[in-house]
Write a structure and sequence with these properties.
This protein is mostly helical. It contains 5 helices and 2 strands. The chain has a two-stranded antiparallel ribbon. It is elongated, with a radius of gyration of 21 Å. The two termini are about 25 Å apart.
């Protein structure tokens, strides 16, 4: 489980770095359009594919930290046993959903490689297969994260809220050096 959390954190950091680079690209494109009347070719295509990648890279950590969107409408009317049963069902359905998405996206990813699928015209062509395979991989990882949360919940290893495996990084005692 710890290695899964580490990978999820690295994927999240990669996503954050990617967003930062996209922000720089947008700024450069706007400045190029405004100051030099010459935009950066392919900005639209890069952004279009990157939004998908950035979103799906954040999925596993959102699952492990209990940050996925949820409502307590039904949960508020159930007792502890009903709440736990509902939570276990949610873990299972989440795993099935993302495994299903990965399964459904696999043929399109293979076709993208086979056909040399790309977006954009002219000088800038952005191949779609890296994002398609990233989508498959992150959906599989999300399914594994849901199964891991299901197992942890069955073993009683989740926090009191029943939804997070991630503990905050402990603070150093006053005067202690954590380096």
């Amino acid at each position: 489980m710890n290695s899964q959390l580490l990978i999820a954190r690295w994927a999240h950091l990669l996503s954050a770095g990617w967003v930062f680079l996209l922000a720089l690209l947008i700024i450069a494109d706007v400045l190029g359009r405004t100051l030099f009347l010459h935009p950066i070719a392919g900005t639209k295509e890069i952004l279009q594919n990157s939004v998908i990648a950035v979103t799906f890279l954040q999925l596993p950590l959102a699952i492990y930290s209990g940050s996925m969107l949820r409502t307590t409408l039904l949960q508020d009317h159930l007792g502890p046993t009903g709440t736990r049963a509902l939570r276990l069902l949610a873990w299972l359905l989440g795993a099935l959903l993302f495994a299903g998405i990965a399964y459904a996206c696999w043929p399109a990813a293979l076709d993208a490689v086979r056909l040399g699928e790309y977006e954009g015209e002219g000088a800038m062509r952005i191949y779609t297969w890296p994002v398609r395979f990233l989508l498959v991989a992150t959906c599989l990882f999300a399914a594994i994260a849901y199964v891991s949360m299901l197992i942890a919940d069955l073993r009683g290893k989740l926090e009191a809220d029943g939804r997070t495996l991630i503990r905050p990084i402990p603070k150093a005692p006053d005067g202690a050096d954590n380096t």
